[in-house]
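U., I forgot to send this yesterday:
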Amino acid sequence: MSVSTSANRKAGGRAKRVHRNRMSIIASMLKVATKGARKTHIMYRAGLSYDQLQDYLGFLKEAGLLEETADQEEELAIVYRTTAKGLKFVEKYESLKELVGMKSEEDEEL
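Result:
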């Protein structure tokens, strides 16, 4: 799995390349899935390619940070939801960012 990724973000009318580390990507995905989200929603909101999404979903499920459930509204659809352990990860991640004075553009978009 890739350790970092980049995404295009608009800054002042121009596309700006933003490089994110693995922890930032994981936190973004977990935030999106807090109340439950489908794969496509997570992919677009977290700014990932399909291959990156697949890699991270596998890792997050295996680590117990994300769970997969059937969608109540559409029987064939799958919803991903952040677990209690995942919520704790996000909380700790945000505390560490605050401790070192980090704030990123991507957090404001989520």
